[in-house]
Amino acid sequence: MTKLKMGIIGVGGIAQDRHIPSYQSLDNRVELIAVQDVNEERAQQVADKFNIPKSFNRYQDLFKEVDAVTICTPNKFHAEIAIAALEAGVHVLCEKPMAMSTRECHYMIEAANRYDSVLSIGYHFRHMQEAQVAKKAMINQEIGEPLVARVQAMRRRKVPGWGVFTNKDLQGGGSLIDFGCHLLDLALWLLDDPKPVEVIGRTYDRLSKTPGQVNDWGAFDHESFNVDDHVTSYITFENGLSMQFECSWAANIKEDETKLTISGVDGGLSVYPFELYQTKYGELWDSTVKMRNEMDDPGVAQAANFVDACLGHADLIVEPEQALKVTKLIEAIYESSEKGTSIKL
Ligand SMILES: NC(=O)c1ccc[n+]([C@@H]2O[C@H](COP(=O)([O-])OP(=O)(O)OC[C@H]3O[C@@H](n4cnc5c(N)ncnc54)[C@H](O)[C@@H]3O)[C@@H](O)[C@H]2O)c1
Questions:
Q1: Under CATH, which number does the domain 126-296+326-344 receive?
Q2: C-alpha 290 chain-centroid distance
Q3: Domain segments of the chain: what residues?
C-alpha cells in the first residue's frame, strides 16, 4: 500500500500530544517525514524525540518533501500556511478553528478547489464514539425532525495558562474559538448543516480581567488577557430550528460540563453520554449504549480519515465548507456582542 508522506507545521502542544502519536500509530499508511516550526530549536528537538527524519525552519522547504501537512500553529497563521501548501499541491489538515475570518476560509477553499487538493479541519469531536452514534441516530430519524438544540461547553476556572490562548492577535478569540467551536461544529453536523438566519451573542471577560483569580490551569496575566472567557448565544435557523449555546473557560459553576442535547418531534438525544429519549408502548422510553471499544481515540480516527481521504480511499468527515460555517457563526456571535444587536445572516 502506498504510504502518505506527512509533515507537521508548528510542533507545540497539540502536535506532540495528538497529531504526531496518531500518525505514528497508523504507520501502515502514513509516514511522518518532517516537521517545521518558526522555533528552529524546538523543531529539531521534536524531530529527535519522535524519530522524524527532517526538520525545517521554512515551510516552503518542507512542502517539497511531503504529500500532506498538518497545521498546528496559532490561528493567525492557519490561512496563510494552508493556502501556500495547497498551492504547492500539498493536502492540508488544519487545526481548528479553520481561520481568523470567513474571508480567509473562502480563500482556503478556493485554493483547495483550484489545486485539487484535500482540505480538512481538526474538529475531532465528530470522531468521538458518542458523536458517531448520535450521527447515525439522526440519520435514521430516531428523533424525527429536530426542533431545539442545547449546547454547552463549560469549564470551571480553567483558563489555559500556557501558550497563546489568551492573545487575541494570535488566536482571534478565547473560549468560543478554542472550546465552544468544537460543540458548535458538532451540533451543526448532527443537525445536517441547517442554514442559520439570526444570531444573538454576548461575550464576557470580567472574571479573567480581575486580578488574583483562582485558576486550575496555571497562571495567566489578567492585564494582557484580551479574549472572551464566557459566551452565550441564541441562534435560529431557516427550518425553524433553534439553538441555545453557551461556552466558558472560567464559569462559576459546580463542575465542568460538555453537553449537547437535541429535542425532535418524535424523540430526543443526548451526546455525552449518548442516550435516546423516546416513547414506546404508551410509556417514556430511554435507551443507553454500551460502547464496545472504550479505548477508541478520536485523534487517531481523525488522522485515519484524513490520510485515507488523501489516498483516495475515503470521503472526508469534516468538509471545509462545513468548518467555514462554524467560523461564520463565531463571527456573528462576536459581532452581535460588539454591536449589542442581533445579526441577520
Ligand atoms: N483540536 C483541539 O482540541 C485543539 C487543542 C489545542 C490546540 N488546538 C489548536 O492547535 C493550534 C496550536 O495550538 P497549540 O496548543 O499546539 O499551540 P502551541 O503554542 O503549543 O504550539 C504552537 C507552535 O506553533 C509554532 N509557530 C508559531 N507561529 C508559527 C508559524 N508562523 N509557522 C510555524 N510554526 C509556528 C510555535 O513556535 C509553537 O511551537 C491552534 O490553532 C489551536 O487552536 C486544537
A1: 3.30.360.10
A2: 26
A3: 4-123+299-318, 126-296+326-344
Grid cell, residue 229, equals 472567557
On whether the CB atoms of residues 202 and 233 are closer than 8 A, the answer is yes
Grid cell for residue 125? 469531536
Alpha helices in 203-319 (DSSP H): 206-209, 298-310
Q: Which residues contact 290 (CB under 8 A, 6 or more apart)?
A: none
The torsion of the CA quartet 245, 248, 251, 255, rounded to 10 degrees, works out to 80
**CA 81, 83, 85, 88 torsion: positive or negative?**
negative
272: phi then psi, degrees, rounded to nearest 5: -120, 100
Superfamily the domain 4-123+299-318 falls into: NAD(P)-binding Rossmann-like Domain (3.40.50.720)
Residue 109 CB neighbour total at 10 angstroms = 19
CA of 95 to the centre of ligand 1 (A): 8
Amino acid 292: pLDDT: 84
Ligand 1, pocket residues at CB < 6 Å: 9-15, 37-39, 42, 72-75, 77, 95-96, 122, 124, 163-164, 178
Tell me: the pLDDT tens digits for 181-202?
999 999 999 999 999 999 999 9
